[in-house]
Design brief:
With 416 residues, this protein is α/β, with parallel strands linked by helices. 44% of the residues lie in helices and 14% in strands. Strands 4-3-2-1-5-6-7 form a 7-stranded parallel beta sheet, sandwiched between helices. The N and C termini lie far apart (51 Å). It binds nicotinamide-adenine-dinucleotide and magnesium ion.
């Protein structure tokens, strides 16, 4: 029996993790569930079904709502009050960390965005295996995260990175020549830049092959997600960013590939269903039987590949630049994006404005490092902390958090 903690259980990855566990109750037990607090009825249902001893909510005001929802859901099931064991409920911005530090076999971090960083660090510090869906925490923390991870402690959940891990089993590290990171291309694949000016949030939310949370869906339309994934792959597998090549594959069946130095390319293929990489992450390196439906070879099918149009979708090159700058630059790339996604969804920023604004904020971050000193002024007090790039050799968690806060505020300013 393996005890699993799920951070962000009400989201797309969190719910699918519970789908995997639901079919295997003899192998997995839910030790804790955490959520932001925006979908209390779903959380209540999950608690009644999986009976976790601990539940954590980020929004303290949601606790009472949860208690009421639990009673309502129990009543709907015809349960008497005594039949329900209430979990311990903790709340507040740090509540996640109590769950992350719980002694258990594995923590699934399925929180969205930079908000997942502290939980990633807490899990690694507790020495627990971490299934990391929350790529943002790895990207912004960089070496601060990978240095904390013992060999084998960090397990990929992202379909591409799970694919890469599976392909890497086919050869030795020193035999790897390139990693081919596949991308669906998102809903606007094939459009030129000038054909993207009028794109609405509603159109961007219609992903052709995957059904995911709001931020990653918009990120897939701008290709920012592929940029984050490029940095994620570099960090997870210690691969030079120039050796990772994004390739558009609209069918999302080949989840990524590894090319070895003899000219052989190994691919991992399966229909687009996150339950496969999620299941593999829960039991890595072993596979769980029937995690998802396999490819149906009785149907005629074509798998196509095309180069990425970097002019229409400059996000991957921009992420690569942030990765090569290192230090606080990836945190700025990510935080500016999170603020821009909010602005785009609120209707105050255009679709093309998302990546243009990230580029501008990143440029300012670099420029602030080059010219930090206003004439005669006290550098530290006259400049908002985190405004200037801090190099990889001396970056701390405080630098990352300060850069994140600055970039978020700066991007929001530009959007307003
Ligand atoms: P989602 O928006 O559907 O769910 C996010 C979850 O995190 C929710 O339970 C929410 O309550 C919780 N949450 C949000 N903000 C929080 C905060 N400040 N503190 C604590 N909890 C908070 O997102 P998702 O699509 O499930 O994605 C989760 C992560 O997995 C992201 O990093 C995403 O990039 C990654 N990912 C998702 C998919 C996918 O298919 N959905 C695929 C690959 C990677
Ligand atoms: Mg992915």
């Amino acid at each position: 029996m393996r005890d699993i903690v799920i951070l962000g259980s009400t989201g797309s990855i969190g719910s699918q993790t519970l789908d995997v566990i639901r079919e295997r109750r003899d192998q997995f037990r839910v030790a804790a569930l955490t959520a932001g607090g925006s979908n209390i009825p779903l959380l209540a249902e999950q608690i009644l079904e999986f009976a976790p001893p601990l539940v954590a909510l980020s929004r303290p005001t949601a606790v009472q709502d949860l208690q009421l929802a639990l009673y309502a859901a129990a009543k709907q099931r015809g349960w008497a009050t005594g039949e329900m064991t209430l979990p311990k409920i903790v709340a507040g911005p740090e509540a996640n960390l109590e769950a992350a530090r719980l002694p258990c076999d594995l923590v699934m971090n399925a929180i969205t965005g930079a908000a997942g960083l502290t939980a990633t660090l807490a899990t690694l510090e507790a020495g627990t295996k971490l299934a990391l869906a929350n790529k943002e925490s790895l990207v912004i923390g960089g070496r601060l995260v990978t240095d904390k991870a013992a060999p084998g402690q960090l397990i990929a959940v992202d379909s591409e990175h799970s694919a890469i891990a599976q392909c890497l089993r086919a050869g030795r590290t020193q035999e790897v020549r390139r990693v081919i990171l596949t991308a669906s291309g998102g809903p606007f694949r094939g459009r030129r830049r000038e054909e993207l000016t009028e794109v609405t949030p509603e159109q961007a939310m219609k992903h052709p092959t995957w059904n995911m949370g709001r931020v990653i869906t918009i990120n897939s339309a701008t290709l920012v997600n592929k940029g984050l994934e490029l940095l994620e792959a570099g960090l997870l597998y210690d691969i030079d960013l120039d050796l990772i090549e994004p390739v558009v594959h609209p069918q999302s069946i080949v989840h990524s590939m590894v090319e070895f130095h003899d000219g052989s390319t190994i691919a991992q293929c399966s229909p687009p269903d996150m339950r496969l990489p999620i299941a593999l992450s829960l039991s890595w390196p072993d596979r769980l039987a029937n995690a998802s439906a396999p490819i149906d070879w009785t149907q005629a099918a074509s798998w196509t590949f095309e180069p990425l149009d970097h002019e229409a979708f400059p996000a991957v090159d921009l992420a690569r630049r942030a990765g090569q700058l290192g230090g606080t630059a990836p945190a700025v790339f990510n935080a500016a994006n999170e603020a821009c996604v909010d602005a785009f969804c609120a209707g105050t920023l255009s679709f093309l404005g998302i990546v243009d604004t990230i580029a501008r904020v990143l440029d300012e971050h670099v420029a602030n490092a080059e010219n930090p000193e206003p004439a005669g002024g006290d550098v530290l007090s006259s400049r908002p902390r985190g405004a200037g790039l801090v190099g990889a050799d001396r970056v701390t968690i405080d630098d990352v958090l300060a850069a994140d806060a600055w970039a978020r505020a700066r991007a929001a300013d530009i959007c307003a």
